[in-house]
Amino acid sequence: MEAVEITGIAAGGAGVGRLSDGRVAFVHRTAPGDRAVVRVVESRRRWTKAVLVRLDSGSSDRRDAPCPHYDRCGGCTLEHLRYEAQLAAKAGIVRDAIRRIGGIDIPPPEVIGSPQEFRYRNRVTFTLRRGPQNVVAGFHELDAPDRLVDVTGACLLPEPAVARAWDELRAAWGPDARRLPSGETLRVTVRASAGARAALAVQGGYAPGRPEELLERVSVLDAIWHKPEGADRYRLLAGESRLRERWSDEEVALSGDVFTQVNRDAASLLEAHVLDRVGAGAPGHVVDAYCGIGLYARRLARDGVRVTGIEAHPEAVAEARGAAASGRILAGRVEELLTEALPADAAILNPPRSGLHDAVTATLNGEGPRRVVYVSCDPATLARDLSRLAERYAIVGIRCFDLFPQTAHVETVVELERTVESAMAPAGDG
What we know:
Helix content: 10-25%
Mean pLDDT: 94
Structural class: alpha/beta
Largest sheet: 8 strands, mixed
Number of domains: 3
CATH architecture of the largest domain: 3-Layer(aba) Sandwich
Strand order of the largest sheet: 6-21-22-20-19-16-17-18
Strand content: 25-35%
CATH superfamily of the largest domain: Vaccinia Virus protein VP39
Radius of gyration: 23 Å
């Protein structure tokens, strides 16, 4: 065991300190300013993972984590930090990734906090595992990810409607969860609408179970979807074919695993910022890449902007095309269709966690619009992509939004403008 001073928070939410031999130590459940006694559990040449044994002195950024599952659960990593400290940590995570991976020096970005620190998630995915004696369903354990922590609706992340649906579901799925689809391990997603109705999407397994019985027993549940092992799409097992949802000013209908942001209140702030920054260039034509159900496309089209959306998810494409005003929606991968959508005055990029395909950055560098607004959920892939785009684009604005309180995740919006000589500064020591 060894005492370390914790000086920061790493991308995964662990505190960062240094051992006496100079190696970096990553220690979950610590805070900047802690003096912690730790025990190394994984040792590498330049870094280690350690677990907290005790605190010799605690940081002023600390608080008692309110969730009853927090001691073991890996679903949250920052709940022991005051919320203001969480936001500061996320600014540091984004800045460090862009400097270290992208080679671009930026000041710590502003992070807009979530209107709701708890009970904000409209969609939660749990892992369910059937054992010889019981069923365990919840999140992976923090320091033992092969084990599951059984999680109830007392978890402080889900919206009240999701928490209620989850507790009712746990009470209704029966011995060995026989009313759910078969399979030793399932991914079970509960989604709730603004009207407090819910839908269930189950991934894995083969036989459908007894969905009609389950639908009857869970009062808030309107639909059950299933994607069997090896299948590429969800199919409706019982209930309504769409979950009716009101998203800010839009009426939408969601099926299967169609994507929306998990934090509706914080997402409204992010979306308003994106539209403001896109509109700042008074564009005539905007490409909305990875457009999902077309929320940006509909709003821009209503304002008289010509929009071309690109989306690969079939159900999301159908919903986007079904909107009264959403522009032209191309169905397929952005890397295959971006050239067809160009030229444009501006582009919105909202890729999955894996970031942009290298063909996308190559197309943007070659024939991209004068203005790009990039929405990222992963600072590491964002940094990589910004480095690739530095050939023709300069950062003119960056702002983060905390859509995921209590976790180390953060959404980042970067404004880029086309330039022959990039204005991006190389990373320095400051």
